[in-house]
Amino acid sequence: MNDLTYREVRLPEDVGGCLLCNNAPCAKACPYGVEADTVIRSLRFENTAGAANRLPDTLPCVSCAAKPCLSACLKGKINRPVPIDEIMRMASSYGKQTITHADLSIDFCGIRCENPFFLSSSVVGSNYEMVAKAFKLGWAGVAFKTVATFVSNEVSPRFDALRKESVPFIGFKNIEQISEHTLSENLGYLRCLKKDFPSKIIIASIMGQNEDEWTLLAEMMTTAGADIIECNFSCPHMAANGLGSDVGQNPDLVAAYTKAARKGTTLPILAKMTPNIGNMELPAIAAVCAGATGIAAINTIKSVMNVNLDSFASGPDVMGKTSVGGYSGKAVKPIALRFIQSMKSCAQLKDIPVSGMGGIETWRDAAEFIALGCENVQVTTSVMQYGYRIIEDMLEGLRHYLGSHGFGSVSGIVGKALPNIIPADNLDRSSICYPRFAQQQCLGCGRCTLSCYDGGHQALRQDEKTGHPILNAKKCVGCHLCVTVCPVSAISSGARVPKDKITSQAG
Ligand SMILES: Cc1cc2nc3c(=O)[nH]c(=O)nc-3n(C[C@H](O)[C@H](O)[C@H](O)COP(=O)(O)O)c2cc1C
Q: Given pLDDT bands bounded at 50, 70 and 90, which one contains residue 5?
């Protein structure tokens, strides 16, 4: 069995070990000019077509005996170099693919955007230089860091990440508030950005302390050249009461402040929602009734993490203390998608434009938000971790996906997944979908058997010679725990059998 049999398992693992260096030494060391770093990055960000296309027709790595990329690899200083040569070979086995020119532009709140990818309001869009760099790399717009009439006084440190196994950012916690620049500095950044990048879209995120301030800030941002106003009703860790998520949890305040912002502008207004609430539809409806054009969701989730068991301090550790702060990054994506889905399934909100965010790292994550009804997506945590450069694979990957699936434009997939999320009592309960085992791929590790016994229905036993699972269909309920735990994807969905036929067919 060659390594291509397990390519879809090996590649992510090998690629996941890459440090994704800036100015990568591996690429510099290659005498043939192979940009291994960008190939690995494309694989990491689920753009396999882009990865294969970046490789030369004849792969020099195959006959390269010296392998200077491996000697240069900084991972070698930790334990062993990333297997760059093998990754290149596996990437090239995908073959060159034509990236079609599917149209990535999309209307959002009546504004044409060159693509759906925006930076979300946070540290990643805090000043002119940062946003200019991002725009040049291909981001279509920015929700600028939240601006207020006051300057927030921040703590140090203010960030921490949750690591588990080999994943460095399962989730990310921050206790940062809003802009550290003065109102006039922020207005200056916005004016210059609009002047220098007229086709890019600027969302000005604002936070007032009372109705007059919401009106004033909306007016000022409009005059400075913003295209859209975003009302921050959702920061979960403001030092003062009555701001951020305190507002977003209270539909009456949301309505009052949206109305006040509407007094100050004729631009589209987005109400940015907090996930620290059971039912997001209530504040969202209040915002729309009070004059919001669309919804942005989600802001970060209130969290406590990383309790140090020596000092009993939790992160981010500010001289032994921390506070409840906002959780973001890949861990929150399913929660974000659930809120988007519930708003898009609500009769009063289904036609309201939504900008979705929460854990988007790749074009695939973004496409999931779009398939659940978002015409626009925003990103912070993954830019903090990997840099603005992730846009390259997002654009290429989305374009390739759309083209290869026969969609001419992004709008073609907006809301496509919504009909498939239905109430629990409408799901089919009359049949069982059995697992199918690909014996030639099975390693015989027995993980499926173990999980089925200890966490399932004792329907598998392990063949003593091969280690392969043997199914007792009479006990199997089709829960698919075995499918999810198999480390090499050797178990998949098999036959679906009506429950009333089971004894005769599956015994
Ligand atoms: C460090 C940091 C600072 C943030 N600052 C703001 C902010 O000023 N205004 C705001 O509306 N949201 C802010 N957010 C929330 C993000 O815009 C976004 O809603 C959230 O992080 C989820 O997206 P992500 O998983 O891509 O990070 C911040 C998030 C982080 C991580």
A: confident
Q: Which residues, listed in sequence order, are joined to residue 295 by a DSSP beta bridge?
A: 271, 354
Q: Identify whether the C-beta of residue 36 lies closer than 8 Å to the C-beta of residue 72.
A: no
Annotated catalytic residue: which of 109, 235, 448, 482?
235
The secondary structure element, H or E, covering residue 85 is helix 84-92
Domain 428-506: CATH architecture, name and number where available: 2-Layer Sandwich (3.30)
Question: Model-level pTM?
Answer: 0.97
Question: Tell me: the pLDDT tens digits for 152-185?
Answer: 899 999 999 999 888 888 999 999 999 999 999 9
Pocket test for ligand 1, best of 117, 119, 121 (most atoms within 8 A of CB): 121
Q: Is 316 in the pocket of ligand 1 (CB under 6 A)?
A: no
Question: Is 284 close to ligand 1, i.e. is its CB under 6 Å away?
Answer: no
Question: Is the CB of residue 205 below 6 angstroms from any atom belonging to ligand 1?
Answer: yes
With tokens 């950005």, the residue in question is 193
- Per DSSP bridges, beta strands 228-232 and 201-206 are parallel
CATH architecture of 7-92: Orthogonal Bundle (1.10)
Q: What is the DSSP annotation of 227-278?
A: SEEEEE---TT-SSTTSTHHHHT-HHHHHHHHHHHHHT-SS-EEEEPPSSSS
SS3 content of the chain, % helix, strand, coil (to 5): 40, 20, 45
Mean of pLDDT values over 34-48: 97
Write the CA distances from 129 to 16, 21, 126, 135, 182, integer angstroms: 30, 22, 9, 10, 16
Say which amino acid occupies 129. E
Q: Which CATH architecture has domain 106-420?
A: Alpha-Beta Barrel (3.20)
User: Is 486 annotated in the active site?
Assistant: no
